[in-house]
Amino acid sequence: MTQEQLNALLEETRQALLGLGIPVSKKIDPVLRVNTRAKRRLGCCYYVSGGHVIEVSASLLDRPQLLRETLAHELLHTCPGCRNHGERWKTYARQAGTALGYAIQRTVPVEGEAEPLRHEEIKYILECQSCGARIGRMRMSKAVKSPWRYRCSCGGKLRRIQ
Ligand SMILES: [Zn+2]
Ligand SMILES: [Zn+2]
Q1: How far is the CA of 98 from the centre of ligand 2 (A)?
Q2: What is the dihedral of CA 1, 100, 11, 128, to 10 degrees?
Q3: CA angle at residue 4 from 3 to 10, to 5 degrees?
Q4: What is 3-120's CATH topology?
């Protein structure tokens, strides 16, 4: 899939949710990010400098249905009061799931694998001062505490931006 096709799919899914009356944010980065490192993560949604950024795992690129469901899942996190998987998020997930025929879940079992794939909530974000790459972290770690001690794969210094 090209980046244009990925962006178009993101926008298409956003419009589908808006069409159901679900208040998806207007401030969503139109570029869908693909993560090639986080293999057990389906996707995530984080908020930086005034906008939501949506990221999906590269392992979804050859699984179109799961990719669409993941986009819907992450887009629902951009609705007011939906940053976690609380009651409001669950209500929208049920509504969208029924209307679009999607299974919008938090974890997705994979045949032959013990651990399911999961959606994660990014709590911390490190940014490379040189190449601008953003690295999401689910929990507190040494790198989140002291980002200046670590380097991006490009060699640039890291800074915590969330
Ligand atoms: Zn989620
Ligand atoms: Zn870098």
Answers
A1: 41
A2: -70
A3: 90
A4: Zincin-like (3.30.2010)
Residue 60 CA to ligand 1 center (angstroms) comes to 16
Task: Indicate the pTM of the whole model.
Answer: 0.79
Long-range contacts of 131-139 (CB under 8 A, 24+ apart): 131/156, 134/46, 134/48, 134/53, 134/161, 136/44, 136/46, 136/55
Domain locations in the chain? 3-120, 123-162
Distance from Cα 95 to the centre of ligand 2, integer Å: 40
pLDDT digits 0-9 by tens, 116-160: 888 877 788 898 999 888 888 878 889 999 999 999 889 999 999
How far apart are alpha carbons 60 and 22 in whole angstroms?
24
